[in-house]
Amino acid sequence: MGIDGGDEKRTRFPCLDRVRYMVTAVVVVLTVAVAVMVITVIVHRPEDIELSILHGHIEASTLWRQSEIPFSSAPRYQFRRRRRHHHRPCDEIKPVDNDDAAGSSDISCAGESGLPSTIVTYEAAASVEFAVTLSAYNPSGRADINCTGITLRVVDMPDLARNTTGAMEVVRFPLPRGFLVRRRSSHAVRRWVRVTDARVLAYLASTYAGRTSFPATVQVNVSVALVTTVVKRTTNPKNVNHWCSVVTVGLDEPSTTADAVRCWAGEEPPYLFGSVLSAPPPAS
Ligand SMILES: *[C@@H]1O[C@H](CO)[C@@H](O)[C@H](O)[C@H]1NC(C)=O
Ligand SMILES: *[C@@H]1O[C@H](CO)[C@@H](O)[C@H](O)[C@H]1NC(C)=O
Ligand SMILES: *[C@@H]1O[C@H](CO)[C@@H](O)[C@H](O)[C@H]1NC(C)=O
């Protein structure tokens, strides 16, 4: 009997031990799995994607249309005067080549001469095309990032130093397709977009008449989701807004050696000098 009981004990307890061991093992495996998932989500968030505008440059087909009209027709966007006659009462005044120098003195001088002449005017172009190259880099070594619902806005913010006062949306366009940015790699999309909005075209002609470039800010709204590769799993898409500043919109082709302009996540654009300078001076 005693021997039988001993046998029973010897057979029962190893069985219990096996069960205990298996339960413990399952718990440990589950804990590790959950921890790995949590760490993956914490360490690699989809919003860690690094967006930038290649070469910090947006190519523009034109910004305005130039024409010469007789002085008598009042020009809308008058910039400089070109005198056809060589009788020059004001020799010290050179023809204005610098587009930024409005030819007011030139005009008064010519007025004194009383000679017929023409004026170079800048009018709104029939349409303007812009080429933007958006680049996305995925710093994660473990997961791919699925970018969808991408919308770009090119905004002229004259007072970017402080606020969005006077901001003008030059163009807003969606990318027709999303893309997957594989781990530790980048993906670039170049897109031409045509602007025919008369209000924008008139704004460009009046603000940048005669100039070949201007600084702007690009807003990128993108929905990002992590796609883990070991066990294929996609996180819920998260909408992230980015601001890329300052980019140059210009007629030239981008310099291939120029640095990309990094985009930063945020609801509000990154004002160049922050709120410190715009804070009212302390009362004295
Ligand atoms: C990326 O997201 C789009 C839209 O939700 C989906 O159709 C596509 O299959 C996703 N790609 C991957 C690789 O998960
Ligand atoms: C933006 O800044 C300008 C110049 O400092 C100021 O005149 C204007 O009131 C500001 N606008 C807003 C909405 O804060
Ligand atoms: C970004 O896009 C989403 C979806 O279209 C929209 O709900 C959200 O308001 C947009 N955010 C900004 C800042 O434009």
Structure overview:
The structure is a single chain. The protein is of the alpha+beta class. The protein is 24% helix and 37% strand. The chain contains four helices and 14 strands. A hairpin with a 4-residue loop joins strand 11 and strand 12. The termini are far apart. The N terminus and C terminus are likely disordered. Bound molecules: 2-acetamido-2-deoxy-beta-D-glucopyranose (3 copies). One 2-acetamido-2-deoxy-beta-D-glucopyranose binds next to strand 13. Keywords: Membrane, Transmembrane, Transmembrane helix.
Give a concise summary:
24% of the residues lie in helices and 37% in strands. The chain contains four helices and 14 strands. One 2-acetamido-2-deoxy-beta-D-glucopyranose is lined by residues 149, 221, 239, 241.
SSE series: HEEEEHEEEEEEHEEEEH
Tell me, briefly, the overall form. rod-shaped
Mean pLDDT: 77
Q: Uncertain segments of ≥5 residues (pLDDT<50)?
A: 1-9, 82-112, 275-284
Keywords: Membrane, Transmembrane, Transmembrane helix
Transmembrane segments: 21-43
Strands, helices and their partners?
Elements (H helix, E strand, L loop, with lengths): L1 H42 L6 E4 L3 E4 L4 E6 L7 E5 L21 H10 L4 E6 L4 E10 L5 E14 L11 E7 L4 E3 L4 E10 L2 H10 L5 E16 L4 E2 L3 E13 L10 E5 L8 H5 L6
Parallel strand pairs: 2-13
Antiparallel strand pairs: 1-6, 1-14, 2-6, 3-5, 4-5, 6-10, 7-8, 7-9, 7-11, 11-12, 11-13, 13-14
Keywords: Membrane, Transmembrane, Transmembrane helix
